[in-house]
Protein: Carboxymuconolactone decarboxylase family protein
Amino acid sequence: MNLLTGNALSAVCLGLLGSLTFASLEAVGNERHARGVEVMDHLSGGAGQPVLEALREDYPFLADGITRYALGDVWGRSGLDDRTRQLAVVAAFAAQGNLPYMKVHAGYALRLGVTRDELKEVVYLTTVTAGFPRAIDAAQALREVPDPVAP
Structure:
């Protein structure tokens, strides 16, 4: 089998990408980053995300990936409204037993209009999907989530 050399591979890539340049790739990346920051500001009410910012210090590439992909590409989609998206994520993190992230997103959910009673129903539903121990842990974690501060 004949493998392409570096120059041949570059030529093939250039042929496939056409006029797509590194500058245009950077612009797309910047757009995704800006959309991710906008999503984070919306979720947190402008308070930012301290864990993400701390991560940025030691792992900027990981923080950028989260901002661009998770927030910009996935969370930035319009297929679900904010309430539905937050309820789904709280349910997923509760079922996984990922309580720190569940608490963060429960806080976002409350700030975006989800009620505590709705979150309790999600926790109760966790008994079916992940068992009573996970639901009990999620219930205890939910008690630690403060009510959002009114703007």
In short: The mean pLDDT is 86. The domain at 82-143 is CATH 1.20.1290.10 (AhpD-like).
